[in-house]
Amino acid sequence: MNENIEFLQAFLKNPGKVGSIRPSSPELAQKMIEGITPDKDNAVLELGVGTGAITKFLQEIVPDDKSYLGIELDRDLVRLLKRNFPDMQIVRGNAVDTMAIHERSGIGKIGYVICCLPFVSLPNEVGEQIMLQVDKFMQQGCTFRTFQYAHGYYFPSAIKLREFMRTRYGKSKKSQLIVKNVPPAYTLTWSTD
């Protein structure tokens, strides 16, 4: 089935947990993985894998099955992902349990967290729990990258995420607006490595 249709079905089934009606564009995906060089001692953790729009590019740079862990909540999307990316370790789970999922996975140190979760549409308490999980990885030394849509950049939840990270890890490195994404988006990067 077409990736756009799969994504739209997931959005219609649960719009509070899927933040867009379309997968990330190749331009946004490439910006999300820019500068990432994973290995078993600096694995990539992808939160909110969706249909694999970013995973598609990650699989080209991930050297082995101990260098990547993807977490996706939607059962149907996980089935699709396992079929499309059989060599990538993708599990069904909730991002509020990220640390426990990572510990069970057998994957080594996380060097990169790629976050595609829709913080703007998540309940505040859920977003806060997820950020506390991300914070645990940041304290161990890693790079955290997420994106925010231009139209939601000044929504309270988007500001809250940036403030949470800024108070702990300084100002983000913000990309130019990626206009070829629908809707246009910025990437935001913090690093403690």
Description:
The protein is globular, with a radius of gyration of 15 Å. It has helices spanning 3-13, 26-33, 55-58, 75-84, 98-105, 124-139, 156-169, and strands at residues 43-47, 68-72, 90-92, 110-115, 143-149, 173-174, 185-191. It has a single domain, classed as 3-Layer(aba) Sandwich (Rossmann fold), CATH 3.40.50. The chain has a seven-stranded mixed β-sheet, sandwiched between helices. Strand 2 (68-72), helix 4 and strand 3 (90-92) form a beta-alpha-beta unit. With 193 residues, it is an alpha/beta fold.
Annotate the secondary structure layout.
Layout: H1 3-13, H2 26-33, E1 43-47, H3 55-58, E2 68-72, H4 75-84, E3 90-92, H5 98-105, E4 110-115, H6 124-139, E5 143-149, H7 156-169, E6 173-174, E7 185-191
Mean pLDDT, all residues: 90
Query: Which stretches are low in confidence, meaning pLDDT under 50 for 5 or more residues running?
Result: 1-21
Widest beta sheet: strand line-up: 3-2-1-4-5-7-6
CATH structural fold name: Rossmann fold
| Approximate strand percentage | 15-25%
Which radius of gyration do the C-alpha atoms yield? 15 Å
Q: What string, H for helix and E for strand, traces the elements in order?
A: HHEHEHEHEHEHEE
Distance between the termini: 40 Å
Range of helix content: 25-40%
Structural class call reads alpha/beta
Number of helices: 7
Specify the CATH class: Alpha Beta
Anisotropy-based shape: globular
How many domains comprise the coordinates?
A: 1
Count every beta strand, where a strand is a DSSP E run of 2 or more residues. Answer: 7
Superfamily at the CATH H level?
A: Vaccinia Virus protein VP39
The major β-sheet equals: 7 strands, mixed
CATH 2nd-level architecture: 3-Layer(aba) Sandwich
